[in-house]
Amino acid sequence: MGDGKTHVHGHFNGLKTTLLFGLMWAIIMGIWWLTDGTTSTLSVYIVIGLVTTFGSYWFSDRLAIASMRARPVSEQEAPDLYRIVRELSAKAGKPTPRIYVAPTESPNAFATGRNENHAAVCCTQGILEILNERELRGVLGHELMHVYNHDILTSAIASAMATVITYLGYSLMYLGGGRDNRDSGPLGAVGLLLSMILAPIGASLIQMAISRTREYDADEDGSRLTQDPEALASALNKITAGASARPMRQTAGTQSVSSMMIANPFSSGGFSRLFSTHPPTADRIARLMQMAREMRDTPHVL
């Protein structure tokens, strides 16, 4: 079938996410073992990780909208935006989310909410000015799939696990290593250093990799919803150029929402790509154009 490669991409992304979560859990268990930890100690850190991320997950829609100073818009103010969101939601068999516009000229968009019944879609003023209707539909399809795929929950779990790893690293620092690392010579010292410093960094890298994987999935699933991957590819090209020309001002609020946006709203490059929540735009566009070719070869693919 013509859509074989895109299905393979989707299955691989799901497997990759699972493996990355497994790697984070392996790091947790490894550091816990090094600290001579007990089950109760690990449980305490897991509870801390869950508590610190629960609020941001449960109230993700309110927090993200407030951080961007976005306002709700009526159907009279944005009839085309409402029509597109309503059509895509109906096609997916989901409720229509609340719609907001953020007062910034930097082009971007995001969707948030713990589930489809508490979802919100937000477009910046800048993105509404530079995209045509076809491109905007591609962007909104991508964003809706983040909600339908429960990516907010996935991100919250990854964040909670990274928090657990960080606290376990602190334990190594303050407890001196456990497992007799202080008396095990240079190798023990190296292991302690790696666990204390590099494990939390590694957890952050894995967390970012999970986010990039979810972006690829939203690109693919959103394009299946709209049946127009070329539109999203064109939109990503415009958004990236626009965000580069008019990068979003970095504040605590915009930084907290940046991972939800369809493209990185800040200037980045080089080493910072390792810690980026978004894949390179060129890679995303290449995948989408490949998907478009496969859809043309198999016109009735769903």
TrEMBL record:
**What is this protein's name?**
Protease HtpX homolog
Give the annotated active site: E143
Molecular function GO terms recorded: metalloendopeptidase activity; zinc ion binding
Q: Where is the Peptidase M48 domain?
A: 76-291
Enzyme Commission identifier(s) = 3.4.24.-
| Source organism per UniProt | Bifidobacterium minimum
Name the CDD domains on file.
M48B_HtpX_like (cd07336)
State the compartments where it is located.
Cell membrane
The encoding gene is htpX
- Organism domain of life: Bacteria
- Show the PANTHER family listed in the entry: PROTEASE HTPX
Cofactor notes: Binds 1 zinc ion per subunit.
Annotated residues for binding of Zn(2+)? H142, H146, E215
Q: Which residues cross the membrane?
A: 12-34, 40-59, 152-175, 187-206
Matching entries from InterPro entries are given as: HtpX_protease (IPR050083), Pept_M48_protease_HtpX (IPR022919), Peptidase_M48 (IPR001915)
Q: Which cofactor does it need?
A: Zn(2+)
**A single GO BP annotation from the record?**
proteolysis
Among Gene3D superfamilies, the record links this protein to: Metalloproteases ('zincins'), catalytic domain
Enzyme class, broadest EC rank: hydrolase
State whether keyword Acyltransferase applies: no
The record's keywords, sorted A to Z, are: Cell membrane, Hydrolase, Membrane, Metal-binding, Metalloprotease, Protease, Stress response, Transmembrane, Transmembrane helix, Zinc
GO CC annotations, alphabetized: plasma membrane
User: Does the keyword section mention Zinc?
Assistant: yes
By sequence similarity, the record places it as follows: Belongs to the peptidase M48B family.
Report the membrane topology from the UniProt record. Answer: Multi-pass membrane protein
